[in-house]
Amino acid sequence: MSESIKSTIQLNNGIKIPVIGLGTYLTDDSDIEKSVRSAIEQGYRHIDTASYYKNEKKIGDTIKELIKEGKVKREELFITTKVGTWQHGYENALKAFQESLEKLQLDYLDCYLIHYPGTYSEIPKGESMSSLRSQTWKALEKLYDDGKVRSIGVSNYAISHLHELLSNCRIKPVMNQVEFHPYLFQEELLNYCKSNGIVLEAYGSLSGGNEILTEPVVLEISKQLSKSPAQVLLKWAIQNGLVVIPKSIKPERVYENSNLDFTISNEDIQKLNHLNKNKRFYWDPSNVN
Questions:
Q1: Lowest CB count within 10 Å: 110, 116, 215, 274, which one?
Q2: Has 53 been annotated as catalytic?
């Protein structure tokens, strides 16, 4: 099993997503152009952002420039953004999408996700978080029907949220983007998504500062394969069936993160799986009703 920057997998609606993408969370505005430009020039075709990241305009500017320079064509790109936690609700989500589309300066999106099953805003009187999620999803279904987005999905959804959605949706989500690394090996969620035809996409693959990158088991496998700890962690996720979206502003790291043309043995995959501590570095959706 060897992945390159051109490797893709098919989503449940038939469209293809590159297995390796560029994450842009917490990338400073001053660094976004360098990061996106470096990634696309090195062959990345999948860029992940969100309204919450406050960098859609800068990403849009950079993509527009690269298209103008002939470095890439719009139809070659897979661009994902997300409805913010404060943008739940039918009308709010439609408005949020339009704002993101205008900032990104695109005619359509490749994927639009609900960023989180909860909200940090006040829930309107007579509503519940469950009903707000349902309304938000209905807005995404309309955007999909109208051809404004090629696929729709969710992020940070636990099994309970997915079950609720699958019980009521007209269009099934193509993806669930969640924190996923050896310290948070969400096996039950992974199996649930696989059995329902939903791709699991990993964020935070290299999170926790140096904690995971200096984990002895990771270092041992890294040395054995003559690959960096980051490459081992990303390849581990891909061999477990996930899409990965590592972020970096350093061109050499951007390249390293996409150079995954090797295979980790099943034995070593199991060693990494068994590092699970249910340890999160980001949001915990398990208490969201």
A1: 274
A2: yes
Looking at 25, 52, 53, 282, which residue is catalytic? 53
Q: What is the mean pLDDT of residues 275-285?
A: 95
pLDDT band at 213; cut points 50, 70, 90: very high
Eight-state DSSP code of residue 116: -
Which class for 3: exposed (0-12), middle (13-18), buried (19 or more C-beta within 10 A)?
buried
- Which residues make up each annotated binding site? 115
Is 32:77 a contact under the CB 8 Å cutoff? no
The domain total for the chain is 1
**Token pair recorded at residue 261:** 């043309």
How far the first Cα of the chain sits from its last, in Å, is: 39
Binding-site annotation: residue ranges for substrate:
115
pTM: 0.96
Q: What is the CATH number of the domain that holds 65?
A: 3.20.20.100
In a domain, 136, yes or no: yes
pLDDT in tens, 163-193: 999 999 999 999 999 999 999 999 999 999 9
Q: Which position has the token pair 């995959």? A: 269
Has residue 139 been placed in a domain? yes
Cβ–Cβ < 8 Å for 144, 167: no
Indicate whether 225 belongs to any domain: no
- With tokens 């400073």, the residue in question is 28
List, in order, residues 6 or more apart from 127 with CB less than 8 Å away: none
Q: Is residue 213 part of a domain?
A: no
Q: Is the pLDDT of residue 133 over 60?
A: yes
Least Cα distance to 273 among 208, 197, 185 occurs for: 185
Pairing verdict, β 46-48 and 22-23: parallel
- What gap in Å lies between CA 271 and CA 195, rounded to an integer? 24
